[in-house]
Design goal:
Blueprint lengths: L2 H8 L2 H7 L5 E3 L2 E4 L12 E4 L4 E4 L6 E2 L1 H9 L3 H12 L11 H26 L2 H10 L4 H6 L3 E3 L6 H5 L6 H6 L3 E3 L16 E3 L4 E7 L5 E8 L8 E3 L15 H11 L2 E3 L3 H9 L5 E2 L8 H8 L4 E6 L4 H8 L4 H5 L9 H11 L2 E6 L6 H7 L1 H9 L2 E2 H10 L7 H17 L3 H15 L35 H4 L1 H15 L3 H11 L13 H15 L5 H8 L5 H10 L7 H36 L5 H28 L1
Parallel strand pairs: 12-13, 12-14, 14-15
Antiparallel strand pairs: 1-2, 2-3, 3-4, 4-5, 6-9, 7-8, 9-10, 10-11, 15-16
């Protein structure tokens, strides 16, 4: 992945814009405020879309872009300077982030292909094992359709089943090690008679239910293995960290839960893989699971692209709940083990404030797992999630459960653990509200719970660890899943491959009554800058077009150009077919932009009407222009389909 993508994945555009002095107000999936680039402070015509990582002003500026364009315009920087500034903020060391070489990309694809083959292998093993299949059907209540949909399988007993199976298919022992299916035996261990003596490796997963783990784009990344024999340990086992799998940066089920999370504007986090599967089967598809260990900030950031409302559904008997009673700061260390969902109240509160999210806790009743809840009463799960409580409220009630609240020592013990949480809250109103609630619960005067004289922790941005100390595998990015980004990258890829097609594209667009392709058609700053170089290349006569692009493209854009070219590796080799597809993509790109602008302008008109309507005609004129453009684009799309 490129350094630009990684920076975008780590920086919240809402937070960035807010820190620049723009007061934003949430409105559906977007945020609105007054534009920082011109003087009109009466109408909030500045809009930020956190899911896309973009902004636009519908006022005097009539400009838009991404985080790089915002910093460039706000601070008067060029792209290279903005890139370095935001890289420092994100904790990305640019010189250490090299572009993914073609051979590396090919190696990653080979690993994913191996995992897909392993999925088929484990699936066949499952359908040949009546005992495990019966367990999934009868004990876990999973239908055959669900088993098939989620690709469940079974790893048979034995230490060397995989290598003899995959070697004839062209996979090496090192491939199986690299993807985490084989483990290398410690040279100090005595070797099992069933292990491969010569290579000293063995199958990592044995006699386990196999759950394929995919990243948010649906690409295979690894496996989770659940025990069949209740005496085996650990209960859950994940693939080890590999070039394509990092358990701290993946949420199980997110590839299927993305759209339902957006639709519900809420994500629910449960503990186990099978919990996620059972809930999806029951119709609750906005559910995901971490990789069995402490919930990471990267995972929360991943979710925040789709919603800021997150519920943790916890088993009341998990070690995380018991850890509260042993001391809040010890919760994470007590929970950081395979197969146990971490509950660290202070860590979650810090993330909640830093990410500007709404984190709540729902406790499951009667020692039931989520799949048992929906099996007992499907609607009960909905009620449990709806009744989720803020973290501080949950901790207060958990600590007070079963205690004698008339005992002064008990009151003191509870207050000693809850007050630090209250003081961690980011706003005075929240702190006062929870302090009053704690005073009522303990039946003491609020003044007895006053904050100590010691400095109160703040939520200022902490410097990130240097990039070399962070986990090395690339996180998933907004760009990687945003369809607008993909369309833009495809168009650039085609033009980078053959810049001369821009002439023919412009003529075709004009035939449909549309304007030539321009940098303004692209939302992302790096794409705008790359297109400008392509445009300059075809307008000059001194050099070959591609040679001009290669010699004038800044190093900071080389990664983006390589990724764009990768988008069209399998595109049609003929220029006519390529032009036809390019024309379709440009029309789709403009249509998506026009629709987004029309919808936003409707909202701005409603807002302006409430403020007196002084600028409503400006918004109406803009809406009419975009509506006319939409009509022209629809006619072009129809004509293109008729020519096929």
């Amino acid at each position: 992945m490129s350094s630009i993508d990684e920076i975008k994945s780590r920086i919240d555009i809402v937070e960035l814009v807010s820190e620049a002095g723009v007061k934003l107000r949430k409105s559906g999936r977007s945020y609105t405020g007054f534009c920082p680039f011109h003087d009109n402070k009466r109408t909030p015509a500045f809009v930020v879309w956190p899911e896309l990582g973009t902004w636009k002003c519908y006022g005097a500026c009539n400009e838009g872009g991404d985080i790089f364009k915002f910093v460039m315009k706000k601070e008067g920087l060029d792209f290279k300077e903005a890139l370095r500034k935001l890289a420092e903020r994100a904790g990305v060391t640019l010189q250490e982030l090299k572009r993914e070489a073609p051979e590396v990309k090919e190696a990653y694809e080979r690993l994913r292909a191996l995992l897909e083959d392993a999925l088929i292998y484990y699936r066949n093993q499952l359908f040949n094992n009546k005992e495990v299949l019966t367990y999934l059907r009868e004990k876990r209540g999973l239908t055959d359709a669900t088993i098939e949909t989620f690709g469940l399988g079974y790893a048979p007993r034995g230490y060397d089943n995989l290598l003899p199976y995959f070697a004839p298919k062209g996979y090496s022992q090192q491939d199986l090690i690299d993807v985490g299916l084989l483990s290398v035996r410690d040279s100090n261990e005595s070797q099992s008679p069933t292990a491969n003596r010569q290579l000293r490796t063995y199958d990592k997963f044995r006699h386990r239910i196999m759950i394929p783990i995919r990243d948010e784009q649906g690409r295979m990344a690894g496996f989770g293995g659940r025990i069949v024999d209740p005496d085996d340990v650990p209960k859950f086992m994940n693939s080890p960290d590999t070039a394509i799998f990092n358990k701290g940066r993946i949420l199980y089920g997110l590839d299927r839960a993305r759209k339902p999370i957006r639709a519900a504007d809420q994500a629910v986090i449960v503990e186990g893989y099978l919990d996620v599967i059972a809930l999806h089967q029951a119709g609750y598809e906005n559910v995901v699971s971490p990789m069995g260990t402490a919930l990471t900030e990267d995972q929360l950031r991943l979710l925040k692209r789709f919603t800021r409302r997150i519920v943790l559904a916890l088993d009341p008997d998990t070690a995380g709940q018991k850890a509260i009673l042993r001391g809040l700061e010890a919760a994470r260390s007590a929970m950081d083990r395979e197969g146990e969902l971490s509950f660290d109240p202070r860590g979650l509160l810090r993330n909640e404030a830093r990410l500007q999210a709404d984190l709540r806790v729902a406790v499951l009743p009667d020692n039931l797992d989520p799949d048992e809840v929906v099996a007992r009463d499907r609607d009960e799960w909905k009620r449990i999630v709806e009744n989720a409580k803020p973290i501080v409220t949950h901790v207060m009630e958990t600590l007070a459960a079963g205690k004698d609240l008339s005992d002064a020592k008990v009151k003191n013990e509870i207050a000693a653990q809850v007050i630090p949480l209250i003081e961690d809250l980011p706003t005075p109103i929240e702190r006062d509200t929870y302090r009053q609630a704690l005073a009522r619960m303990l039946r003491v005067d609020e003044s007895a719970l006053s904050a100590p004289a010691a400095p109160v922790p703040t939520f200022r941005r902490k410097p990130r660890a240097p990039a070399q100390s962070r986990e090395t595998s690339a996180p998933q990015t907004v760009a990687a899943v945003n369809p607008i980004f993909k369309m833009e990258a495809y168009c650039l890829g085609v033009l980078l491959r053959n810049p001369a097609l821009l002439y023919r594209l412009d003529r075709k667009l004009q035939e449909f009554g549309l304007t030539p392709l321009a940098a303004e058609d692209f939302e992302y700053t790096a794409h705008q800058l790359t297109f400008n170089i392509i445009r300059l290349a075809v307008e000059q006569d001194e050099k070959d077009h591609q040679n001009y692009v290669e010699t004038h493209l800044p190093e900071t854009l080389s990664e983006i150009s390589k990724e764009a070219l990768a988008q069209v590796e399998k595109a049609s080799p003929t220029d006519d077919k390529l032009l036809e597809e390019l024309l379709n993509r440009v029309v789709d790109l403009r249509r998506a932009g026009a629709m987004a602008n029309i919808n936003q302008l409707r909202f701005l008109q409603e807002e302006e009407q409430l403020q007196g309507g002084a600028n409503i005609k400006t918004y109406q004129r803009q809406a009419i222009q975009f509506t006319k453009l939409l009509g022209a684009l629809d006619r072009a799309k129809k004509n293109l389909s008729l020519k096929r």
